[in-house]
Amino acid sequence: MTETLLFVGDLLTSQYTYLLVAILLVVGLYIVVASSNLVKKVIGLNLFQTAIFLFFISAAYVQGGQSPILPSEGAGEGLYASPLPQVLVLTAIVVGVALTAVGLALIVRIYSEYGTLDEETLREVRADE
Fold first, then answer.
1. What does the alpha-carbon distance between residue 105 and residue 98 come to, in Å, rounded to a whole number?
2. In degrees rounded to 5, what are phi and psi of residue 76?
3. What is the CATH architecture of 2-62+80-128?
4. What is the pTM of this model?
5. Residue (of 82, 84, 85, 80) closest to 66 by Cα position
6. How buried is residue 127: exposed, middle or buried, by Cβ count under 10 Å (0-12/13-18/19+)?
7. pLDDT per position in the chain (129 positions), as tens?
8. Number of H helices, E strands in the chain
9. Which of 53, 54, 47 is nearest to 18 (CA)?
10. Which residues contact 36 (CB under 8 A, 6 or more apart)?
11. So where are the chain's domains?
12. What residues have CB less than 8 Å from 16, skipping those under 6 apart?
């Protein structure tokens, strides 16, 4: 039992970013599921998305890794960090900002049409139409 606790303690001190990823995922998912306000749902999705970005960056980290630019005189020695996760995260950030903008624009339109941002109230209003 103490070996398990030592392993968990060592894991938390060395891989704390994964704990942060798990917390952000859970909080973002909870906000999306528990809140009936549409703006809060968009904020929850953004938190969830940020956790995914942090996970990609944390998983791509190489201890002692170098930039993957090889010197002109030949191949270098050592570990290299892959630039692919950073490129994917940058692309995902741009797509996420665009989707957030579209989602908030739709929320503004919904509010101007129905006068509420509450999901349950919207369902009642739509059922009456």
1. 11
2. -85, 170
3. Orthogonal Bundle (1.10)
4. 0.79
5. 80
6. exposed
7. 666 766 666 666 667 888 889 999 999 999 999 999 999 999 999 999 999 999 988 888 777 777 777 666 666 667 777 788 888 999 999 999 999 999 999 999 999 999 899 999 988 888 887
8. 5, 0
9. 54
10. 118, 119, 120
11. 2-62+80-128
12. none
In 3D space, the residue among 118, 107, 100, 116 whose CA is nearest the CA of residue 37 turns out to be 118
Residue 35, judged by CB atoms within 10 A of its CB (0-12, 13-18, 19+), counts as: middle
Q: Angle 35-38-42 (CA atoms, 0-180°, nearest 5)?
A: 90
Cβ contacts of residue 15 below 8 Å, gap of 6+? 58
Closest CA to 44 of 17, 56, 26, 22: 26
- pLDDT for residue 126: 83
CA 111 – CA 129 distance, rounded (Å): 16
Sign of the torsion formed by the C-alpha atoms of 32, 33, 38 and 39 = negative
